[in-house]
Amino acid sequence: MSQPVVGVLALQGDVREHQRMLAEVGAASTPVRTPDELDAVDALVLPGGESTTMWRLARTFGLLEPLRQRVAGGLPVYGSCAGMILLADRIEGGVAGQETVGGMDITVRRNAFGRQVDSFEADLDFPALSEPERPLHAVFIRAPWVEKVGDGVDVLARVATADGTGNIVAVRQGRLLATSFHPELTADARVHALFLDIVKEA
Ligand SMILES: NC(=O)CC[C@H](N)C(=O)O
C-alpha cells in the first residue's frame, strides 16, 4: 500500500489532534462519520473522548456493524483511551448495556485509575517504538487499563504501580493497536509512526 488514507472516527473526541499527528508521520487522513466514509479508508483511528457517547453515536449513525465488519476483515485500527475501550472484546465498569466494536481479545476496565486521579502523566518504557531506549511521555485522562489479555495479544507497555507489577496500558493484536493514554496530546509522534508501520505492512 503506497499512499494509505487513515480515517479518524469523528463522532466525538480529539479528532483534529490525531489528524495533526498522522500528518506529522506522513500519512493522509480524513474524518469518518458515515459507512461510506468508512468504506473508503485503508486504516482507522478511534480517538479518545467518551466511550459511552461514541458507542451511542456509532449506533445512531449506523456505524457499529460496519465497524465490526471492517475490523473482522483485517482493517488496521489504532484506539487511544476511549478508542481502546471500543476495541476491547470485554469491558468492566461500562454503563448498562454498553457495547463495543470489539476485535481485541482484551478485558478493559473503564476509569481504572480511580476518581481521585482524574488525570496524570508518566514516562513509559515502550520498547516497540523507534528509539526504544527513549521513554514515552504519556498523558492519561480518566484512562482505562487492560485487565486481561488473550493469547494473541502482545503487551507493549505498562505504567508502574506501587507493588511493582505495573498496569497494562498499551497492547497490539495483529493489525489492532491500543493505548490507554493520549499520544496525540504530546509532541511525540512515535505511537502514530508505529501504527503507520502496521498499516503499511497490511
Ligand atoms: N480520555 C478518555 O478517552 C476517557 C475515556 C472515558 N473514561 C470513557 O470511558 O470513555
Secondary-structure blueprint:
Blueprint: E1 5-9, H1 15-24, E2 28-32, H2 35-39, E3 43-46, H3 51-60, H4 64-72, E4 77-80, H5 82-87, E5 88-92, E6 104-109, E7 119-124, E8 136-141, E9 145-149, E10 154-159, E11 167-173, E12 176-179, H6 190-201
Parallel strand pairs: 1-2, 1-3, 3-4, 4-12, 5-6
Antiparallel strand pairs: 6-9, 7-8, 10-11, 11-12
What does this structure look like?
This is Pyridoxal 5'-phosphate synthase subunit PdxT. It catalyses: L-glutamine + H2O = L-glutamate + NH4(+); aldehydo-D-ribose 5-phosphate + D-glyceraldehyde 3-phosphate + L-glutamine = pyridoxal 5'-phosphate + L-glutamate + phosphate + 3 H2O + H(+). Keywords: Glutamine amidotransferase, Hydrolase, Lyase, Pyridoxal phosphate. GO terms for molecular function: glutaminase activity; pyridoxal 5'-phosphate synthase (glutamine hydrolysing) activity. Its EC number is 4.3.3.6, 3.5.1.2. This protein has 202 residues and is α/β, with parallel strands linked by helices. It has one domain (5-201): 3-Layer(aba) Sandwich (Rossmann fold), CATH 3.40.50.880. Helix content is 26%, strand content 31%. The chain is built from 6 helices and 12 strands. It has helices spanning 15-24, 35-39, 51-60, 64-72, 82-87, 190-201, and strands spanning 5-9, 28-32, 43-46, 77-80, 88-92, 104-109, 119-124, 136-141, 145-149, 154-159, 167-173, 176-179. The chain has a 7-stranded mixed sheet. The protein has a 3-stranded mixed sheet with strand order 5-6-9. A two-stranded antiparallel ribbon has the order 7-8. The radius of gyration is 15 Å and the shape is globular. The protein starts with a strand and ends with a helix. 44% of the residues are buried. The structure holds glutamine. Glutamine binds at residues 48-51, 81-82, 85, 110-111, 141-142.
